[in-house]
Amino acid sequence: MENIRRFAVALSAAVALGIVSIIFVGIWVSHYRDGLAWDGGSAEFNWHPVLIVSGFIFLQGIAIIVYRLPWTWQYSKLLMKFIHAGLHLLAFIFAVISMVAVFDFHNAAKIPNMYSLHSWLGLAAVILFCLQLVLGVGMYLIPFTPASWRAAFMPLHVYTGLLLFGSVIAVALMGITEKLIFGLSNPKYKDSPPEAIFVNVLGVLLVLFGALILWIATRTSWKRPSDQILHTLHTNGEGDEGSKIGPALSELSDGADAEPSGDVRRRSNKLEDQEN
Amino acid sequence: MENIRRFAVALSAAVALGIVSIIFVGIWVSHYRDGLAWDGGSAEFNWHPVLIVSGFIFLQGIAIIVYRLPWTWQYSKLLMKFIHAGLHLLAFIFAVISMVAVFDFHNAAKIPNMYSLHSWLGLAAVILFCLQLVLGVGMYLIPFTPASWRAAFMPLHVYTGLLLFGSVIAVALMGITEKLIFGLSNPKYKDSPPEAIFVNVLGVLLVLFGALILWIATRTSWKRPSDQILHTLHTNGEGDEGSKIGPALSELSDGADAEPSGDVRRRSNKLEDQEN
Predict the structure, then answer these.
(1) Which of A107, A152, B240, B247 is buried most deeply by CB count within 10 Å?
(2) From the CA of B79, how many Å to the nearest CA of chain A?
(3) Positions in chain B short of pLDDT 50
(4) Where is this region: Disordered (chains A, B) (predicted)?
(5) pLDDT digits (tens, 9 = 90+) for B202-260
(6) Cβ–Cβ contacts within 10 Å for residue B238, how many?
(7) SS3 state of residue A110
(8) What contacts A232, CB < 8 A, 6 or more positions away?
């Protein structure tokens, strides 16, 4: 129970940070900027940070840890995979619309597109995210995919997912930097007006949200019990080649407070699925 | 041997990317900017990107994966811990000097300090890096520290180390963004002069370097053999409480190409140390 309690604290903190971030970006565009519209002007641009924070960061973060929620362990792994994929798809749609908003705004204002490092890395992240989504569905939601392919691909799937999540936050921080430099003129960013401080705090909140999601995703003791067993089997080399299991989301650490594996075995008597 | 060959390819690519990044930042400050000096002017500022890329990014990256180098497995774990800590200390010194350069430059040019999100997150990263270094030395290089403390702290040590490494690269990307906006006036950043493209490429190189270091650090099958055994013991719950072992750097995945654990056991017959 101590383990579950710690998970609940970490999850609550992550969700709270995510929601506060969304509120912050809402206040930023409505109180300090021109609000939201779809008119080619700066109010259309404002959809960009709103959709990135609420979709590409918050929804993606929740999608990553959805297997960790203890109250979902009673549902089938297949259902959870659909929710995992569905949330990622939603995050992707948010990201695409947010990019359309920027291109519209740039084109209307005669500002060049794709010149900044932020735009290069942001577009690369969206393209790789799409590839990850397509490959993920092909590997884990199409029933014909061989179990050996699924297992072989899992380490890359997990690594790429976490790397992309971290990269999206890094790109958002670059975007905040750009917007505060370009958007603040009198007083300037360097004069630290209230908007500058406020949006800097938003940046800090996004980093803390990302750090917590990565912590939750990489604690083995917080994994779905069947996935913990799969990991144990794999580490021991007990699985035969045909059903070799890739470890599930992250084994960065087993944690000093890991439940004894015997306990885990009692909690789940069968392997629900052949991959994470 | 296939496993070692793959490691060699990944390591070579990471080192090459790191060295090319250092060359890029050197060309940036010498060809496009005013070179290096310690005079309070822009040439003093230029030490900032040079020392961050060569020290806080490249040296830190190498420090993280130093346990993975197969030709070091013949040396004692203690020696490798000193090298791991020493490289991190060097990276920290580079970071501190690089910050002094910026403060000097700002003060001479009457530019405010610490107003940007880049400066907030950069300073936080340096402070947390220092804390991580002090705690790491206290935990793993002072002989009196109880093994149970070492084991309990290891998951946090590994997580924080990798998170800080990724964060430092993110902060560097924000710094590049700032410098290109402030430094380019005619033509501007948005006009994509050669310097803008060149330094954007430097940003991409840093991301690729970081991604490769994180990949290397999180492959269990590339770990020092004794650490792989410690991980197996821990995952199985075979270790008694007093000598409970935290897993070593990263268990993000065991990889489909993991060596059978029997092989690993043959390669090393004793546990050299009680922690990573």
Answers:
(1) B247
(2) 24
(3) 237-276
(4) 233-276
(5) 999 999 999 999 999 999 999 999 887 766 665 554 333 333 333 333 333 333 333 33
(6) 10
(7) coil
(8) A261, A264, B235, B236
Query: What is the rounded distance in angstroms from the CA atom of residue A18 to the CA atom of residue A58?
Result: 6
Which chain A residue is nearest to residue B211, measuring alpha carbons? A163
Alpha helices in chain B (DSSP H): 2-27, 42-45, 47-51, 60-64, 77-108, 117-140, 147-183, 194-217, 225-236, 261-267
Q: Is the ipTM of this complex over 0.90?
A: no
B219 DSSP assignment = B
The CA-atom distances, in angstroms, between B210 and each of A39, B66, B196, B269 are 39, 15, 21, 34
Count the neighbouring beta carbons within 10 Å of the beta carbon of residue B44: 19
CB contact under 8 A, B155 and A252: yes
* pLDDT digits 0-9 by tens, B77-90: 999 999 999 999 99
CB within 8 Å: B235 and A236: yes
- In this structure, the number of other CB atoms found within 10 A of the CB of residue B202 comes to 23
Q: Where are the domains of chain A?
A: 2-217
Residue with tokens 């490249």: B58
In terms of CA atoms, which chain A residue is nearest residue B106?
A190
Cβ–Cβ below 8 Å for B190 and A111: yes
B155 vs A199: CB contact, 8 Å cut-off? Answer: no
Model confidence at A208: pLDDT above 50: yes
Using CA atoms, how far apart are residues B276 and B7, in angstroms rounded to an integer? 20
Fold of B2-267: Four Helix Bundle (Hemerythrin (Met), subunit A) (1.20.120)
Chain A environment of B176 (Cβ under 8 Å) = 117
Q: How far is CA A201 from CA A30, A34, A59, A241, B151, in A?
A: 17, 20, 20, 50, 34
Q: Could you give the CA distance from residue A24 to residue A259 in angstroms, rounded to a whole number?
A: 38
Chain A positions in Cβ-Cβ contact with residue B231 (cut-off 8 Å): 235, 254
* Domain A2-217 falls under CATH 2.40.10.240: no
Alpha-carbon span A178 to A172, nearest angstrom? 10
**SS3 call for B112:** coil
In percent, the amount of chain B with pLDDT more than 70 equals: 83
User: How many Å lie between the alpha carbon of A268 and the closest alpha carbon of chain B?
Assistant: 16
Considering only alpha carbons, which residue of chain A is nearest residue B162?
A252
- Is residue A181 predicted with pLDDT exceeding 90? yes
pLDDT category at A233 given cuts 50, 70, 90 is low
At residue A185, the 3 state secondary structure works out as strand
Q: How far B97 CA sits from the closest chain A CA (Å)?
A: 23
Higher pLDDT, A228 or A11: A11
- Judging contacts by C-beta atoms under 8 Å, the chain B residues touching residue A252 are 155, 158-159, 162, 218, 250-252
Dist CA B255 CA B275 (whole Å):
22
Tell me the C-alpha distance between B49 and B95, whole Å. 10
Average pLDDT, chain A: 87
Radius of gyration of chain A (CA): 21
